Amino acid sequence: MGVAGDKGEITVRLARAGDEAALSLLGGATFLESYAHLLPVTDIIGHVARQHAASVYERWLADAACRCWLAEHLPGRAPVGYAVVTPPDLPLPDIGDGDLEIRRIYLLHRFQRNGLGRSLMDAVLAHGRAVAARRVLLGVYSRNEAALAFYQRLGFARVGTRQFRVGANDYFDYILSLDL
């Protein structure tokens, strides 16, 4: 699927083996963009090294229970956004086989607010429906107001909280849910 805008054409495609380096680079860049104003640099560097290593994405790409998507800017196919869906790993008492977790969904800031986030989410939700998932869950930083507003517009509802550690500091995520 493609999105046209003042920033050029962007396509969203299912990621595949060999995309782990692009996903890793994009994961680190978008995490830095999103949280550099909130987190100590040593915490960000350590977190990105562990949580956005190419090997993390390589495992997800090899796991049939997981899906990753890349948003690429044309014509050069530079990665500008991505999404990752996995079996859920959230502290909810009613997690079941019919649940999926959006583990990551990020765009470089320059490519936000042109419908690309919605295109990534549409791909995720279409996958959830195709595998007959009952709901899609995600954790979002409790102070990320732009993301919270985006998820609210899509119909997600808050169903819990979790503590999230980055480096030496703890933060709180809201756990959101959307029935499919």
Looking at CATH, the homologous superfamily is: Gcn5-related N-acetyltransferase (GNAT)
Strand order of the largest sheet: 1-2-3-4-5-6-8-7
CATH architecture: 3-Layer(aba) Sandwich
| Shape annotation | globular
Q: Outline the low-pLDDT stretches.
A: none
- CATH uppermost class: Alpha Beta
**How confident overall, as mean pLDDT?**
93
SS class: alpha+beta
Task: Please bin the fraction of helical residues.
Answer: 25-40%
What does this 3D model show about the protein?
There is one protein chain. By secondary structure, this protein is an alpha+beta fold. 34% of the residues lie in helices and 33% in strands. It has a single domain (2-133), classed as Gcn5-related N-acetyltransferase (GNAT) (Aminopeptidase), CATH 3.40.630.30. The protein has an 8-stranded mixed sheet, with helices on both faces. Helix 1 packs across helix 3 (54-62).
In short:
The chain is of the alpha+beta class and 180 residues long.
For this entry, give a set of tags.
180 residues, alpha+beta, Aminopeptidase, 8-stranded mixed β-sheet, 5 helices
Helix-strand blueprint:
Layout (H helix, E strand, L loop, with lengths): L1 E2 L6 E5 L5 H16 L5 H11 L2 H9 L4 E7 L4 E9 L12 E9 L8 H15 L4 E7 L3 H10 L2 E10 L2 E11 L1
Parallel strand pairs: 5-6
Antiparallel strand pairs: 1-2, 2-3, 3-4, 4-5, 6-8, 7-8
